[in-house]
Write a structure and sequence with these properties.
332 residues; alpha/beta; homotetramer; 6-stranded parallel beta sheet
Chain lengths: 332, 332, 332, 332
C-alpha cells in the first residue's frame, strides 16, 4: 500500500489541525492545502511542507491526490463536497455533514452515485469515553433504554467568533444528536426545543430540547455557548443513558490536568486534541489516522455516511421547534 | 423564651429524623409523636422520650404543644394540616406542601385566615451549595439569567418503595421547581414535559421538562428514579444558572467521603443528614433548628409559605403536559 | 439549664467567628469579648452585642461568665489558658493546644489540678467527612491499618500573614496528626520530616513527613502553604486509610459549589464555616454548639483533653526531625 | 522507509498488548513472538498473525527482524536485553530497565558499546496529563520547584499476582521516580523510606518515601498496592509540583467514564490503554507508535536511555533505606 496523498481544504482552527495531523502520520503524505485566505494557506503550507493552492478546482484536479479533508464553514460544505466527489476523491468532511437536510442529502446521494467514499468527522466516535459508554449500552447489558441525556456547553467567545457562520445546533448539537442515536440505538422521531438569544452574538446562547426515540426512550439535550470565558477547560460535556437493567455515563468536566497561578486554577484538554511532545494526539488524531488507514486499505469507515446523515433531519426539526414553540415530528 | 414543645406526625423515614433532631435540639422539647402504625409510634417514642399518641385529634388537642412537624404521605397533608391549623399549632410541613394546587391553596388560606404559621420543608434552602448559588446569582453579579438547569436523579428502589404514595414530580421535582424559581428570581410560566414508565414501579421512571420563566430564561429539568441501586451516593443532583454577566453551578456528585471494599467504592452523604458522633447534622438539622428558633422568637421563616406554594401550580402543569404531550401554561 | 454565658478572647479570623456563632446559638449568650487591639474589640462587640473588655484579667474576673473561647496566637495560649483555668472557666481553646509539649502539659495539668474543663478546637472531629472515615475505619470493618496518608495544603498568603506567629506544623499539621492518631487508633512513635523554605514568608513553605504508628502502620504527612493564591477553594485536604480488610478515604477538593466569571472558575466552602442565610453553619458551628451543650449539661466533650494533648509531642518530634534531618522518636 | 519488522519477547499482560498494538500500526509489521509458555506463544501468534518462536536465540538470529519489545519479568531483562543488543536489534524495553543498578548499567553500556538503540517503556512520557504537567513546570513559568508529590496506588490483587517477580519500587515506583526527576528537572540525591508487609502477598503492601533533589526541592512518594479490589478504576495516581511562581498537578482518579449496575458504580480507563472500536488506543499505543517511527527514521527517542537509567539508582537507594530505616544517599 502506498502512502495516502491528502489535501486539506479550509484552514481554520480545525483545518490547520487536520493538516498538522496528516503531516505527522506515517501512512499519509500531506500533498496540498487551500484556504480562501491566501496568507493562511501559505502559513500552513510552510509549517507542514504541503503545496499551497490558490483555488479549489486546481487542487481537486491533481490526480496524485487521493483524499481530501474539508474543513470549511458549514454553508460551504455542499459545493466543496460535490466538487470533491466529482473529482473522485475520498472525503473526510468535518461535521456537520451540511447545514440542512437538503444539502446533506445531495452530498450523500452524489457520493453513492459516483461510488466514492465519505466519512464525517464525528470525533466522539473516537473518544474513549463515548465509545465505552456505547459499548456498555449494549442491549444485553443495559436492557431497554429509558432515558438519555446529552450536554455540550461552551463559552460565549465561540459564539461570537462564529457569528452567523454556524449555529448552536449544527456546530455543537450535531455531536450529541449523533451520539444519542448511536448510543441509544434508535432514531429520534419527535422533538421540542426552546432557545434563548440574550447575548447578541448573532447566534443562539442556549437551546434546551426534549426528544423521543422510536424505541420509547426519552432524551434531554442541553446546549449552551453562553458561559463566561472562565469556564474550566472551556467546555462541559456529559452523557448518560439509563436502561431497564443498568446504566452508563460519562462526564468530561475533569480532564485530570490543572495549573495553578496567582489568578486561579485552570484545566486543560487531555482527550480531544492535546499537543504533547510536539505532536497532536487524542481523539482527533485517532479519527484522522482511521480515515487514512481505512481509505488506504479499502476497509469500511467506523461510521457509514448514511448513519452520519441521520443526525441532520433531527437538527432541522429542532430548529423548527425552537422557532415555532411546539413539538415537531422528524421528517427523514 | 421557653423551649418550643413540638410533636411529630408521621414517623416514616423523614418523620423519624424530625423526631430525633428535635430531641437533640437545645431550644426544643419533643413532646409527642404519632403515626398511623402504632408499633412505629411506640418505637420512636421510646427512642426519643416523647409521648406516643394513638390518634391525631388527641395529640392536637394538647394545649402544651406549640408546633407540629407533619411528615405524612403527600395525600394526607391536606387534612392533617387543616387540623393542625385549626388547633392553632405552628406547622413544619414536609415537602410537598400538598399533592395538588387546590389542596395547597386550601392549606395556605386556612393558615392566613387563622393567623397561624406555616413553613414548608424545602431543605435546599438550608443547603450551603444551593444557598451559595442563590447568593451568587444576584442580579448585580449574574446579570440577567439566560438558562437554568436542575437535575435530581435517584435509584429505582425509591420509586418501588413509594409506589403510588407520591410521584416523581411531587417527591423530587418540588425541590427543583422551588429552587429554579427562587434562584432564577422569576416564576415559571410555561412548561413541556415527557415522561417514561418502563420499570413498572407504579411511578414514572423519569421525567424531562423544559420550562420558560417570566423573565425570559429557559430551564431544563431532569428527574429520574430509574437508576440501578449501585448509583454512587444513591442520588445525583446538580444545578446551574448562566447569566448575561456570569454563572454559578453546584454538583452533588462528589460528597468527599468514600469507602473501598472488595466489592467496590461507595460514597456517602456529607451534607443532607449525615449522622456523626451520634447526632444528625447538616441541612435537615439546620432546617429544623431554624423552624424552632423562628417559631420561638416570632421571626419570619426563611421562606414565606406563599413562596413555597408557588411551586405547586408548576408541578400540576408539568403533570398535565407529560400526560397530554403538549406545552402547557402554568395557571396560578 | 440556664444559658451558657461565654466570652471570646482573641478576635482574629477565628475569634470573630467564634463570637458570631455564640451570638446566634440558642443555648448560649455572648457576654464579653476581648482583643489586644481595642478597635477590633469594639467592632466585634458592636456586631455581636457583647460587652467589650480592655483587659483579660477584668474579663476573667466576672463571675457571670461560665466559659471562654481562647483564639489567641499559639504562643499566647499558655498564659491565657492558665489564667482562665485559675478563674474557673470552662475553656474552648482553638488549636493548637499550645506551641510546644511543655506548655501543653502545663495547661492540661492545671485543668486537672483545678478540676475545670477544657476542649481543644479540633474541628475535624465535627467534619462529616473525617468522622465518617473514622467510623468506617473501625477494626471490625477495616481490619488492621496498613498505611495512612494525610494532606493539608494551603496558599502562601496564609504563611505570609501569619509570619512567625505560628508554623506549618502547629497551624496546619496539628489537624492531621490528631486525625491520624484518632482514625488510626494508635499513637505515632517515630517520625522523619523534611521541610523547605524558599518563599521567604518567615515560615516553612512545605513539610513532608513519614511516621510510624505503635500498631505497625506507616503514615505519610503532606503539609504545604506554598500554593499560589489561585488554588481552587484555597486549600486541599485529603485523608486515606487502608487496612487489611478494607479502606476509606476523603478528599476535600470538590466542595460542590462553583462560580464562573470571565476570569475563571472559583470554588467555595460548603463544609467548614459557610455563611448562608446570614448565619455561620457547618463544622465550626457544630463544634461550638457541642461545646456549649456539653458544658451546660456536664456531659463529656467529644474529645478528652488528654487525647488532644497527644498531638503535641508528635509535632515537637517532627520539628526536631526536620531540623536535624534524621528520624526522631516521639517522647511523651 | 520500509515497515519496521518487530518481535515481542514475553507475552504476559504487557507483551500481549505490545503485540496487538504492533499488529495494528501502519508503519510496523509484527514478525515474531516468543514466550516461555509455548501455549501463550501460539495463542498470541494466532491472534496477531506473527510467527511463533520456541526460543529466544532463534528469534534474535533472524536478520529480517529490526526491533524487539522485551516484556519479560524484571529479573530476566538483563540477559534478554544483552542478547538483543548482541543481535543488533533496536529494543523497546518495558519498565523497569532492570531490577537493580548493576544490571541496568550493564545494559546501557552494552547498547553504547554496540551502537544499537534502546528505549525504556516509560509510558508516562506519553500521557497527556504528565506531559502537560512537565511542560507547565518549565522554569520560566513555575519558577524554582519547592515540593513535588507523586502517588501510585493499586489493588492487592496485583501484588498477589506478581509475587516475588517484581517489587512495589520496580513495578510501580519506577514510573514516579522517573516522573519526579523529569518534571522536577533535577536528580534525587537522598531518600528515606518506610514500608509495610502485612498482607502476606510476598511483596511490600506499601512504601512511603521522602526524597531530596539536587535543586533543593523536597519530594513525597506514596506507593501502595494494598487497596481492596473495589478501588474505583483499579488504581489511583496523582502528581503535583509547586514552584516559587506557580504550580501544576494532575489526578487520574476521574477518567470520565462510569457504569452503574445493581452492585455499584464502576469506572474505567480512558487514557492508558483503552480498547475502543476493536483497537488499543491511548498512551501505550502512542508510546509504541513513537518507538516504531523513531526507529524507522533514525530520530532520537523521546527519552534517552541514560535518562531512563537515572531512575534505577534511586530505586536501589529507596530499597536500602526501607530496609535499614535510615536516610540513604543515592549512589550513581
Amino acid at each position: 500500500m502506498h502512502e495516502l496523498r491528502v489535501a486539506v481544504v479550509g484552514l481554520g482552527w480545525f483545518g490547520e489541525r487536520h493538516a498538522r495531523v496528516y503531516s505527522q502520520l506515517p501512512g499519509a503524505r500531506l500533498a496540498a492545502v487551500f484556504d480562501l485566505d491566501a496568507t493562511r494557506t501559505k502559513r500552513v503550507a510552510a509549517v507542514t511542507g504541503a503545496e499551497p493552492h490558490a483555488d479549489l478546482p486546481g487542487l481537486l484536479s491533481r490526480p496524485d491526490i487521493d483524499a481530501v479533508s474539508i474543513c470549511l464553514p458549514d454553508r460551504l460544505h455542499l459545493n466543496a463536497a460535490l466538487a470533491a466527489v466529482g473529482a473522485g476523491k475520498a472525503i473526510l468532511l468535518e461535521k456537520p455533514l451540511a447545514h440542512d437536510t437538503t444539502s446533506a442529502r445531495q452530498i450523500v446521494e452524489a457520493v453513492e452515485a459516483r461510488g466514492t467514499r465519505l466519512m464525517v468527522g464525528h470525533i466522539l466516535r473516537f473518544d474513549p469515553r463515548y465509545v465505552q459508554v456505547y459499548e456498555a449500552a449494549s442491549p444485553e447489558w443495559l436492557g431497554e433504554p429509558i432515558h438519555i441525556r446529552a450536554k455540550r456547553n461552551g463559552v460565549r467567545a465561540t459564539a461570537k467568533r462564529l457569528g452567523g457562520a454556524s449555529s448552536i445546533l449544527f456546530y455543537m448539537g450535531v455531536h450529541d444528536i449523533d451520539a444519542m442515536q448511536w448510543i441509544g440505538r434508535s432514531p429520534i422521531t419527535r422533538v421540542y426545543a426552546q432557545k434563548r438569544q440574550a447575548l447578541g452574538t448573532g447566534n443562539e446562547d442556549a437551546l434546551y430540547a426534549i426528544v423521543n426515540f422510536a424505541n420509547g426512550a426519552v432524551g434531554s439535550l442541553d446546549l449552551s455557548w453562553a458561559w463566561p470565558a472562565g469556564l474550566m477547560n472551556g467546555y462541559r460535556a456529559s452523557f448518560e443513558i439509563v436502561g431497564t437493567q443498568s446504566a452508563a455515563y460519562l462526564d468530561c468536566a475533569d480532564q485530570g490536568f490543572y495549573t495553578v497561578g496567582e489568578e486561579g486554577t485552570v484545566g486543560g484538554d487531555t482527550h480531544l486534541w492535546p499537543e504533547i511532545n510536539g505532536r497532536i494526539v487524542g481523539d482527533l488524531a485517532d479519527e484522522i489516522s482511521h480515515f487514512v488507514e481505512a481509505t488506504r486499505t479499502g476497509k469500511p469507515y467506523m461510521q457509514h455516511h448514511r448513519e452520519a446523515f441521520a443526525a441532520i433531519p433531527v437538527l432541522d426539526a429542532l430548529k423548527e421547534s425552537a422557532e415555532r414553540g411546539v413539538p415537531v415530528e422528524v421528517r427523514r
